[in-house]
Amino acid sequence: MKTSWKRELWEWAKAIIVGLLLFIVIRSFLFSNYVVDGQSMMPTLEDEDKLIVNRIGYTVGSIDRFDVIVFHATEEDDYVKRVIGLPGDTVSYQNDQLYVNGEPLPEPYLDEFKEASGEIYLTGDFTLEQLPGGETEVPEDMYFVLGDNRRGSKDSRHIGFIPKENVVGEVSVRYWPFDNFEAGFNPTK
Predict the structure, then answer these.
(1) Angle (CA) 146 185 70, round 5°
(2) Residue 188 located in a structural domain
(3) What is the pLDDT of residue 82?
(4) Cβ-based neighbours of 34, under 8 Å, separated by 6 or more
(5) Closest by Cα among 33, 31, 161, 18 to 88
């Protein structure tokens, strides 16, 4: 009787240890939590939204235009922004219209913010040459990112291009507030 109780306790201990190890591996290498700090991604993401960031996706896939990513902006701070320019792209804004490689691209995720703010123009005119570094195109292994709240975002217009190695991952799930829960996060709507 005593040996079966000890055996049962040992089986439970092994299951708990394996579960904890799996949790640590998944948390460290595959996914991480992120809390939005600030209003730079409104209305797509709000201050204090809680997110799950897919850390493995970019090691087997690629970063695509309009992905919402988390990256190391400084040694202390991570930012969440939208990828606008990929390596080799030219990026400019004229009369609140995004141009990538000379082609106008729609940004439907800004429509709600334009309506709510009553603003016609959210993004000031610029070309890459006018920004820090004066590059004519996005350099290799770098990205050009913008916050959706263009007037209240510190992004590539201010901090320059984002190195690929600084990308933590893509936002996959918004899980809080629960009434805004979104799995399979679609940042282009």
Answers:
(1) 40
(2) no
(3) 93
(4) 50, 51, 52, 53, 70, 78, 80, 168, 171
(5) 161
Domain that holds residue 9: 2-183
Inside any domain, residue 189: no
Q: Does residue 14 sit within a domain?
A: yes
pLDDT computed for residue 188 by the predictor: 59
Spatial contact of 162 and 77, defined as CB atoms under 8 Å apart: no
Q: Looking at the annotation, which residues are catalytic?
A: 40, 81
Using 50 as the pLDDT threshold, list the residues of the chain that sit under it: none
CATH number at residue 20: 2.10.109.10
pLDDT tens digits along 66-106: 988 888 888 888 888 999 999 999 999 998 899 999 999 99
The number of residues in the chain equals 189
148 and 82 in contact (C-beta within 8 Å)? Answer: yes
Tell me how many domains the chain contains.
Answer: 1
Residue 125: what pLDDT?
Answer: 83
Write down the pTM of the prediction: 0.78
Q: Rounded distance, CA 99 to CA 5, Å?
A: 69
